[in-house]
Amino acid sequence: MVENAYAAAGVDIHAGDRAVDLMKVWIEKSRRPEMLGGIGGFAGLFDASAFKAYERPLLATSADGVGTKVAIAQALDKHDTIGFDLVGMLVDDLVVCGAEPLFVTDYIATGKVVPERIAAIVKGIAEACVEAGCALIGGETAEHPGLLGPDEYDVAGSTTGVVEASELLGAELVREGDVVLAMEASGLHSNGYSLVRHVLLQQGGLALDAHIDELGRTLGEELLVPTRIYAKACLELARATRTHAMSHVTGGGLAANLERVMPEKLSATIDRATWTPQPIFDLVRRTGDIALADLEMTLNCGVGMVALLDPEDVDAAVRVLEGYGIRSWAAGEVTATPGGTVELVGTHPGW
């Protein structure tokens, strides 16, 4: 009779238990008062009685992953920042409608459970939840030997938030003359890494441990810069100003994502001359000889979030965002041109 057959097939239940023990301390740090119980149950519990204070609470939900940025974390054997990328992709999708993120659940699939590595990933997720103001309420770690290599993993998750119906942001609030307020990205964030890896590592032959003078650090350090989390700042922005809509700049780039919150009767123009993207974007452009239009359809090019707001509130909005360490600027305006399109004009300084 075969004993420990599951372990012989490549699944180590004891390693999974050890990973859970290691991650408990980090999950506890992300606890909100509404979170009931601890980890280990079949479902996470969140006390929804706080919704009684809402006249008409709307639940918002989002699901996402990190994409091929995990390949950089695996190559560098550094796993405690990728959680910020996951949480950023999740909660900043919620906040564009004015929703406060309440909790996150995660899913980690790996070829082999290494408890310390799983704990490092969860540490990043939990710390990012603290920064976003939500709880890491539960998750799943799955061991997939034969499907993923021993050092390979992927991360994904989902989040739920709430917004008062009367405070919902969106295209129906956008007005002619609204200012397009751009919020600076921390770097590449979590989109376009298939292109970036192909251009820099394969075409350009650059090494992750190579120091790049224009970046001021190694290429690997630059590529692992965590996604900026805008959630708390944008919620404050919505409370303090007449913000009508917001857009999270992810896959598809600035124009395509802003068009998702543009009414059909209006359009917007953005002036590239109002900012210079961080050096990593120009490095990708030059190394791959990539047309600007292609670059802008794939990468955020230095703008991670956009708000459409009353022009009289721009100065106040900039001050609010400065309080959260986020640089912002007026990058364009909403026009009466029908079509719901976004046009980028001009040239980035130095490009």
Automatic annotation (TrEMBL):
Pathway: Purine metabolism; IMP biosynthesis via de novo pathway; 5-amino-1-(5-phospho-D-ribosyl)imidazole from N(2)-formyl-N(1)-(5-phospho-D-ribosyl)glycinamide: step 2/2. NCBIfam families: purM. Its main location: cytoplasm. It is found in: Cytoplasm. It catalyses: 2-formamido-N(1)-(5-O-phospho-beta-D-ribosyl)acetamidine + ATP = 5-amino-1-(5-phospho-beta-D-ribosyl)imidazole + ADP + phosphate + H(+). The gene is purM. PANTHER family: TRIFUNCTIONAL PURINE BIOSYNTHETIC PROTEIN ADENOSINE-3, TRIFUNCTIONAL PURINE BIOSYNTHETIC PROTEIN ADENOSINE-3-RELATED. It is an enzyme of class 6 (ligase). InterPro entries: PurM-like_C_dom (IPR010918), PurM-like_C_sf (IPR036676), PurM-like_N (IPR016188), PurM-like_N_sf (IPR036921), PurM_cligase (IPR004733). Keywords: ATP-binding, Cytoplasm, Ligase, Nucleotide-binding, Purine biosynthesis. The lineage of its organism: Bacteria, Bacillati, Actinomycetota, Actinomycetes, Propionibacteriales. The keyword ATP-binding applies. Belongs to the AIR synthase family. Residues 175-343 form the PurM-like C-terminal domain. Residues 49-163 form the PurM-like N-terminal domain. This is Phosphoribosylformylglycinamidine cyclo-ligase.
